[in-house]
Each structure stands twice: as C-alpha cells, then as structure tokens.
Write a structure and sequence with these properties.
Blueprint: E1 5-7, H1 13-23, H2 32-43, E2 49-51, E3 61-69, H3 71-74, H4 81-95, E4 101-104, H5 114-122, E5 126-127, E6 129-130, H6 143-146, E7 154-157, E8 163-166, H7 172-185, E9 189-193, E10 197-198, H8 199-205, E11 207-208, H9 210-226, H10 231-239, E12 242-257, E13 260-269, E14 277-283, E15 285-291, E16 294-298, E17 302-307, E18 324-330, H11 339-345
Parallel strand pairs: 2-5, 3-4
Antiparallel strand pairs: 1-2, 3-9, 3-10, 6-11, 7-8, 7-9, 12-13, 12-18, 13-14, 14-15, 15-16, 17-18
Helix pairs in contact: 1-9, 2-5, 4-5, 9-10
C-alpha cells in the first residue's frame, strides 16, 4: 500500500471530539472518555496517521468500528482502548488476514474517536471517512447499506472474555436484529467491528472526509469561544446550518430499552421563540423536532441541541432540566436524502408516517 498520510496533531484531538459530538445528532455516545484516552496516549508518545480515502489501494482491507448500544449505559461503562481492539482482532482471526486501516462506521460522538484508539493499539492508519456522516441508531443505517454491500461478517466483544463473530445474516435488518440481541446480552453496550470493507468499497460508497469535517466544526467552536462570539451562530455560518429554535429544557422523558435510549424532551422558547413549545423525539439520536406540534425538522437532517453559551453539543443521555439550548439543523450527506437513502434513514424508517421535508427546503417541498 502506497499512501500519503498526515499525522493527527495533539491540538486537533479536542476539536475532533467537539465536532464529532455535534455531528452525532445527540448520539454516538459522549466523546469525553475517548478524548481523555487519546490525549493521554499522545502525551505518552503515541501518534495516529490520518489517511485520505483516495490513497487506499482497491484491495486494502479496512476495519469499520463503533460501540453499539444505549448511550446512557456508556456513561457507566467507560471507554477502553484494549476493549475496542478485541472485535477487530476477532475478525482478523476469522478472516485470516490483517487490516490495512480502520475507520468509524459513524463520525458522530464517541464513535468518531474510537478508530483512533484502535489505530494506536494496532499500528494502522485511520481513514478520513465514515458510513453515515453523522450518527444513526441502527446497523443498517449506513451508506454501505444504501449501496447494498454485504453486511457480514461482524464481530462484537465485551469486558469479559467474550468475542462473537456473526458469520452470515439474511439482510442488513437481520444483522441489526442479531447484533442488537447480542449487544443486550453483553450489557447493552459492546465494541463492534462491522463487515470489513475493501479500499474500493470505501472510495465508492463511504462518506468521504468526514473526520476533517468534524475537526473543522470543532475548530469553529474553539475560535468562537476565544473571540467571545456566539459558537452556535459560528457553526451555522461555517456549515450552512439553520437555527430551528432557541429555548430552555422544561421536560425530559427517556428510557433504555432493547439496547436503545428512547424518549423526548420539551423546550419552552426564549427570545424570538418566546411563547412557543418545541419537542424533540429520539432513539439514541434526535429524530424529529416539532414546533407547537408541527414537524419542522427530521431525519436525515442532522438535528443537534447545542448549549447556547458554550457551543457544546448536548447528547440524549445528558439532557437536563433548565439547559439553555439552540436547536440547529445541519445538512446531511446527499446520499442520505436520495430516494434509496430515505427508505433506510428517512422518517418512515423510524415509524413516522410522514414524508421527509428538509429543513433547508422551500415550505411545502417534500421527498
């Protein structure tokens, strides 16, 4: 493999974590543990090489990693670099072949940092790409699924001496069902290595340069803080986003069930939105936002709740009464809102009996 790579610098780790948390749309797990782990490893002399996807050889084998499960459980079971490596090694043993590189299945939240921990432990580069451009709750909700690539084999591990390889599945939906059942048995959280991808498949079917996007968003927040300007407004300007609502959280309803964190939160409007109520529903990630009962933002648009002062993303597991919030929408990768993409990640894929309406479309326009 001949590749042009660059070293991820230590001062990029915090922006990466901040940007990944925003792109997580409330899910992907908090990146804080991964950030602390990665920073500590760097201070001990470790480094990660970030590889552009275009530099992959067509026959390179790429590991696709994430932690599966309910974000709330992740607050109790802390990230462990050695644990993240376990399912990748299980797949190598099953395949009889070594991986050339690693990438996140989703750039959102803590899952955006997980491949960097695997990279250090296995001495392979991280590819600047993912399969969602954000975070989604289910295994089939990826660009690889939209492109109808093979979904097996897949491996899961846990903090005990368990490593499970699913050698075959009838469909992407069946792979989600099987792996979710195993995940629940392992404690509702488990590091995973999804179906391995060739370099050609990554180049043709992944969301490219998403790691760079996360770092860029994090830098935007950092610069706004240093200049004492509005970090929410800065992100919206830099990323072509839209402020959907400004408010204060007045209610949170959430529960962990079947390996997901499900629920909703309600905000009372402030400033220009005073007198209105905004409700956001979630399944690990924020899925639907309603203003006074009317849907105004929905998947696959990236719905993010940001702390109005700090610009930090607020995950579904960290919502609390009294937080001052800016609800924003960021554009998702175009493949997610394609006709095929909407069957996998649109509102109806989550049980909403409505057609997708982009937060960036003209009023009345639907897909």
């Amino acid at each position: 493999m001949v590749a042009t790579m660059r070293t991820l610098q230590e001062d990029e780790i915090e922006p990466l974590a901040t940007g990944a948390w925003i792109l997580g749309a409330g899910g992907g797990g908090s990146p804080y543990d991964g950030f602390l782990n990665l920073r500590q490893l760097y201070r001990g002399g470790a480094q990660v090489e970030l590889m552009q996807p275009e530099e992959l050889a067509d026959d390179d084998l790429v590991a696709v990693v994430s932690t599966m499960g309910a974000p709330l459980v992740g607050q109790e079971r802390l990230a462990d670099p050695e644990l993240s490596i376990k399912p990748v090694q299980a797949l190598e043993e099953y395949l009889g072949r070594k991986f050339s590189a690693v990438m996140p299945v989703e750039i959102g939240g803590g899952n955006g940092l997980e491949p960097f921990l695997v990279s250090i432990g296995m001495d392979i580069p991280v590819v600047d790409a993912d399969a969602m451009g954000r975070a989604f709750p289910e295994a089939q909700m990826t660009s690889f699924s939209i492109h109808e690539l093979q979904m097996f084999p897949m491996a899961l591990g846990d903090i005990r001496d368990n490593a499970i390889v699913i050698t075959r599945a009838a469909s992407w939906t069946w792979m989600e069902r099987l792996s979710r059942t195993i995940c629940v048995a392992l404690g509702s959280t488990a590091p995973t290595a999804k179906a391995p991808r060739t370099g050609r498949e990554v180049k043709d079917c992944a969301i490219l340069h998403s790691v760079t996007r996360a770092i860029r968003i994090g830098r935007t927040v950092q610069e706004a803080r240093l200049s004492h300007s509005d970090p929410v407004a800065a992100v919206l300007k830099a990323e072509g986003g839209r402020l959907v609502f400004s408010g204060k959280i007045v209610d949170v309803n959430r529960r962990t069930t079947a390996g997901f964190l499900r629920g909703s939160t309600a905000l009372d409007g402030v400033d220009a939105d005073h007198g209105s109520r905004f409700e956001v529903e979630f399944q690990n990630e924020y899925l639907m936002g309603r203003r006074d009962g009317e849907p105004v933002v929905m998947v696959p648009d990236i719905i993010c709740l940001m702390d109005s002062e700090s610009g930090e993303a607020v995950g579904t597991e960290t919502l609390r009464y009294g937080q001052r919030i800016g609800v924003i929408a960021l554009p998702a990768p175009p493949i997610l809102s394609s006709p095929k993409g909407l069957t996998v990640v649109g509102p109806r894929a989550f049980g909403y009996e409505i057609d997708y309406r982009s937060a960036f479309a003209d009023p009345g326009e639907t897909s």
